[in-house]
Each structure stands twice: as C-alpha cells, then as structure tokens.
Design brief:
This protein has about 300 residues and is an alpha+beta fold. Helices cover about 30% and strands about 25% of the residues. It contains ten helices and ten strands. Strand 8 and strand 9 form a beta hairpin. Helix 2 packs parallel to helix 3. The protein is globular and about 55 Å long. The N and C termini lie far apart (about 50 Å). Bound molecules: 4-diphosphocytidyl-2-C-methyl-D-erythritol (CDM) and adenosine-5'-triphosphate. The site of adenosine-5'-triphosphate has 20 residues, from helix 2 and helix 3.
C-alpha cells in the first residue's frame, strides 16, 4: 500500500497493481492565432510525446492516499486543495464523481507519482499526470467512459489534458482541445533542456502582445523543413521573462541540432538531432556543462523513419 511518503523506486515497482506512463508533451510548433472572449487564447500546435516522463502506480487500498518519489517530487503540491492543488488528486476526484453520478463504484486507491519531469516546465507534466490518472483509474476500477466524455472531463482540469489523454502525434486547435491525429509525423530524437526555473503559463500568455498571428498551414515538404518555417509564439515573451532560456537554447543549438525551439510556455527547450545516438552524446556534453540543469535525450512516439531529412 502507498500510504505515507515513499522515496524508494523499487518499493514503488514492487507494490503497485498497475502502472501508467505520463509522457512529456512537446509543442514542436505553437502559433497563437487569436483570443476568445473569456481570455483563453486560440492556438494551433503540432504536438508530440516523448517515450519518457513521470510514472504513476495505482493500487487498491483501504483509504485514498498518495506518495511521491523522483528527482522533482519535492516541488509538487501534496494536497488537492486550491487552484494549484495536485492534478493527480483533482483527476481522481473528478473521475470518481463522474462515475458515482452514473451509479458506478470507485473504491479507495493508493497512488504513487514518480516525478521525473521538471515542474511548470512547458512539457505538460501536471496535465500528463492528470491524463495518466484518468487512464490508470479506469483500468484499476475496470470501467470505461466514452472518449468524448473523458476529453470533456480532462479539459476541465486543463487545456493540455485532452491531448495528453491521446499521447500521440497531433495537431491541436481551439484552445488546445480540438485534436487531429498526425500519423505521418515521424519519431524524432530530441534533447529536452530545462534550467529549473518554473514558468507560469498564464503569466506568459499575459505578456503576449501580438495575438493575431498567422496559422500553421498545410505540411509543405519534409517535416523538418516544414517545422523550421514555424514558430513558438510564446517564446519571445518567455525569453523576455526568463533569461536562462537564451542560454539553454544556445547551448543545445551548439550541439548540432537540426532545429532548436521552446516547448509550450517554457522554459524547456528541445533540440532535434539526426539520430538518438547524437542526442545521447549531446545530453552527456550538456550535463557536463550545466550539471545542475535538466537534460534528457528522448525518442518521440511516431513512425520510425528510415532517415531524417
Ligand atoms: C501552452 C500550452 O501548454 C500549449 O500546449 C497550453 O496552451 C497550456 O495548457 P495548460 O497548462 O493545461 O493550461 P490551463 O491550465 O488550462 O490554463 C492555464 C492558463 O493559461 C492561459 N491559457 C491556457 C491555454 C490557452 N489556450 N490559452 C490561455 O490563455 C489561461 O490564462 C489559463 O488560465
Ligand atoms: N502532478 C503535478 N505535476 C506538476 N505540476 C503540478 C501537478 N499538480 C499540480 N501542479 C501544479 O501545476 C502547475 C503547472 O505545472 P506543470 O508541470 O503542469 O506545467 P507545464 O509543464 O508548464 O504545463 P503545460 O505545458 O501544460 O503548460 C505548477 O504550478 C504545479 O504546482
């Protein structure tokens, strides 16, 4: 049972009934194209997911509980209370309420969150955890909800949660909830880099002055050439707020990337490399230069290409 604060990953692996990966979300491009009357911004984003992320374990229990481990566990909210309550607990309570409203039982559960992703980092950590909680609890409780109903529940937790429920390459539109699969987006070898400066998503949207930007348009040529023509419109306001983004972007770019860009509202930047071996080598070099920062080589989901252009 996961009651109390565990820090040992091996106990985590031994004891949970089932696991879910909460993969890091990467906005390969993000164009802000307008703003709704309620303040939310309209965007178009090409999104993919890494093969690594947070890990969650779920076990039957006598009472609800949560425990944490992993490099970034100490930065997490531990309760469900308030606007910044833990999204895992919010997702658990929301799903339980939805099921109970239908007369379906949702018994107590012990959840363990291995927090491997930096917090408030633009790679969807909290949203990915919330989505993994919804997926994991449906498996543990042996229940199903229609995909549309699950997406609506997810959206009430955060704009990124519906895309994290899918965790596949996609184009997001609207405020991030209108999703179209991109089955042709290839698997990419990336290095993610974060200077461990947390960035507030609403704070970055507030600093955005130009909201009426050009849309992404249709795929033109190969993926890398196409992505190079695109942007992350949140990058200029994030760079003006967090000086370290300039530095981490230059450091990653100096490792021989095909493209370097910021994800989401930052501060995580990614570099695309021609091979996973090249990404791993770059990660080692970057860790040597800035051991206190976060660098991770990842493969993204998608078709494995014969050759990256
Ligand atoms: C930047 C992205 O990560 C790109 O994928 C998302 O747009 C943000 O997704 P998220 O962190 O799940 O966002 P939420 O938790 O729903 O929203 C946090 C805050 O960001 C702002 N926000 C978010 C999404 C959006 N399309 N427009 C916005 O203006 C709003 O001020 C909102 O109150
Ligand atoms: N399980 C969780 N993991 C990370 N952050 C969480 C979690 N639950 C709540 N939070 C809170 O959510 C806020 C945003 O954290 P998160 O890591 O999701 O940001 P992000 O990576 O910028 O997300 P996005 O890319 O979706 O904008 C933080 O203030 C954090 O305290």
């Amino acid at each position: 049972m996961f009651l109390g604060n565990l820090s040992s990953d091996s106990r985590f692996a031994d004891e949970a009934n089932l696991f879910e990966l909460a993969p890091a979300k990467i906005n390969l491009a993000l164009h802000v194209t307008g703003q709704r009357a309620d303040g939310y911004h309209l965007l178009e984003s090409i999104v993919t997911f890494a093969d690594t992320g947070d890990r969650l374990g779920f076990s039957d229990a006598d009472a609800d509980g949560i425990s944490f481990s992993g490099r970034f566990a100490s930065l997490l909210p531990t309760s469900v209370e308030g606007k910044h309550g833990n999204l895992v607990l919010k997702a658990r309570d929301l799903l339980r309420k939805a099921l109970q409203d239908k007369g379906v039982s949702a018994p107590p559960v012990a959840i363990h969150l291995e927090k491997n992703l930096p917090v408030a980092a633009g790679i969807g950590g909290g949203s990915a955890d919330a989505a993994a909680t919804l997926r994991g609890l449906m498996r543990l409780w042996n229940v199903g909800l229609p995909a549309e109903e699950l997406a609506v529940l997810g959206l009430s937790l955060g704009a990124d949660v519906p895309m994290c429920l899918k965790s596949e390459p996609l184009m997001a539109r609207g405020i991030g909830e209108e999703l179209t699969a991109l089955p042709d987006l290839p698997s990419l070898s990336l290095v993610l880099g974060n200077p461990l400066v947390g960035v507030s998503t609403p704070g970055i949207f507030r600093r955005l002055t130009q909201k009426d930007n050009s849309p992404i348009g249709a795929l033109d040529g190969d993926w890398i050439s196409f992505l190079k023509m695109l942007r992350n419109d949140l990058e200029p306001p994030a760079r003006s707020l967090v000086r370290e983004i300039d530095q981490i972007s230059s450091l990653i770019g100096a490792e021989g990337t095909m493209l370097t860009r910021m994800s989401g509202s930052g501060a995580t930047c990614f570099g695309i490399f021609p091979s996973f071996e090249a990404a791993e080598k770059a990660m080692e070099n970057l860790n040597g230069q800035k051991p206190e920062w976060y660098f991770q080589a990842v493969r993204t989901v998608g078709q494995v290409p014969e050759r990256i252009q």
